[in-house]
Amino acid sequence: MSAPGPAGTSAASPRARTRTRHALWMLIQRRLPLWTVSISLDILFMLFVQAQALLIRAFFDWISGGMAAGLNVWSIVALLFAARIARNLAGYAAQVTGAWFGASGQHFIRRSLFLRLFRQPGARAFVGSPGEAMTRLHNDAAEPPNYLINTKWVLGQVVFAGIAIVSMLLINAPVALIGLLPLLIIGAIATTAARRVQQNRRETRRQVGRITGFMGEMFGIVQAIQVAGAEDSIVGRFGALNRDRARAAIRDRVFSEVLNAVSYNSISLSTGLILLVGGRLIRAGEFTVGDFALFIYYLDQLTFIVGAVSGMVTGYRGVGVALERLEALTPDEPTEDLFVPRDLPLPPDLETPASSQDKSLRPLLEVSRLTCLYPGTTAGIRNVSLILHEGGFTVITGRVGAGKTTLLRALLGLLPRDTGVIRWRGEAVDSPADFFIPPRAAYTPQVPRLFSASLRDNILLGLRSDDSAPLERALHAAVMDDMLADLPEGLETPIGARGVRLSGGQVQRTAAARMFIRQPQLLVFDDLSSALDVATEAALWERLAQQPATTCLVVSHRPAALRRADQIIVLQQGEVAGVGTLADLLKSSQEMRDLWTDL
Fold it and tell me: Which of 81, 213, 343, 571 would disulfide-bridge 402, Cβ 3.0–4.6 Å?
């Protein structure tokens, strides 16, 4: 389900309206020269339309004999033809620059959204399902730039409308007012209906988000659905969601089409009124056939303008809805920051490694009284302290639910810590999520995430280098030699969605190689070897030991890792129950003895 907007706000509230205006203005400022050129072309386009209207008036006056000496019919036709060509050229240029502006704006918003999402703690990165988040990134992110494209076109129409209304009033004010009255009434109705349009639009997007999220989750658990024999239930649920989406879309479309029909058909009413009044004036010589043709041409254009202006009003509310939905993706950051240009974060500058004499004096990583509890519960970790020295191999172990994964995620900033201090080489780390990134640190979770791409692309993840040596070293360290020989296309083998074509152990080794190629100072593994056989696990730890500059923090219960560790941290119900080597803990810690007995 779609997440609500920030508490106390809605797309119609004063704060939301201010937010919308600010966001749109920031988008314009980003590409102000392009916006200025594009809107000038739209105005030029409508000025050529205005020239066409005046030439049509002259043509009908010439036919009816009411035109004074001057232009002949062929001159009028030639000028009409030239105005038409100029109008088309200006319109084409306006469309090209508008599309350029819109594509640039959409790219900027989506890029900013990804940066904001990557700054969020891992446990709070998405609201709702990933499928719904993709709907917001695709549809809602396009709403503000598309609205601005429509707005510049409407502004050109407004310039035309101003000239047209003044011209009509100068020709015959009473007839002009009679013709314009239906348009003004329709415009007022459309503006009044804007709130209903906004509600329909929000509900339609909510339903689309629900069905998109359901589809994403359904495709991700196909095997589980088949094992449970739940195909009929899943298809039934999918059908129900689709019917809800269809009802919402039909309500939205029907209401909008009724408004459009009323708006665009008002020209018939205006034409009828002008015929009733203008016919008598034409006979009296106070109104020419050309004037009548000009009024009808103007009213036809003004009908579209009224519809466009009412659409601009409702579209403005739609932008507010889109911003509300985008803000909900990253609720901890203000919407205004979405439109502030930001550079991609650069990899951190690595500190000079400590010399062998300094290692014993200054730890690489120090955690003091770290507490992280899940909201509304007592589950989590409490007052955890640990010290990692450079080149060390530290294992965190404990029973299921002891808090091992929570400790890693809180340490790396993927979960918000309640209290505690984290220091790196003696310096406090204020934002662990931004700090513990390659090449300073790398992390592989319990269930590594792979992409539907080749094995090489999953390991490199965008890294570019003409030197193949780092990749070869990473493959060797991850014990992938035999694995590559078994794959039909080696590194170029497509691994399927989420690595479905690989075994559990192969997925873990691929994730390990992805860490190693970035050559981080700190490697953080969450039960990485759980799917590896004994020989492969032993080879993995042995090859890691051959890299003395690398510090490892490992969650594991496997004997091979525990024997190799120079420090073991035993967790029990979220608290540290013991620290030391395996031999020391087997003497001093009952919890460690119980865990070792159960292995």
Answer: 571
Ordered alpha helix ranges (H), 139-230 = 143-192, 194-220, 222-228
Q: What is d(CA 180, CA 83) in angstroms, rounded to the nearest whole number? A: 26
**pLDDT value of position 16:** 64
Read off the amino acid at residue 94: A
Mean of pLDDT values over 167-194: 79
Q: pLDDT tens across 304-343, in order?
A: 776 677 677 777 877 888 888 888 777 767 666 666 666 6
CATH 3.30.70.60 is the classification of domain 14-339: no
Give the residue carrying structure tokens 């309640």. Answer: 418
How confident is the model at residue 342, as a pLDDT? 65
| Residue 492 CB burial class (10 angstroms; 0-12, 13-18, ≥19) | exposed
**Helix, strand, coil: what percent of the chain each, to 5?**
65, 10, 25
Domain parsing of the chain, residue ranges: 14-339, 361-598
| Rounded Cα gap, residues 156 and 135, in angstroms | 32
Which H or E run includes 324?
helix 289-329
| For residues 24-50, average pLDDT | 89
Say how many C-beta atoms besides its own lie within 10 A of residue 350's C-beta. Answer: 11
d(CA 94, CA 213): 37
Domain 361-598, CATH among 3.30.470.30, 3.40.50.300, 3.20.20.105, 3.40.50.2000: 3.40.50.300
Residue-level pLDDT at 124: 57
Please enumerate in sequence order all residues whose Cβ is within 8 A of that of 300, keeping only pairs 6 or more positions apart, or say none.
267
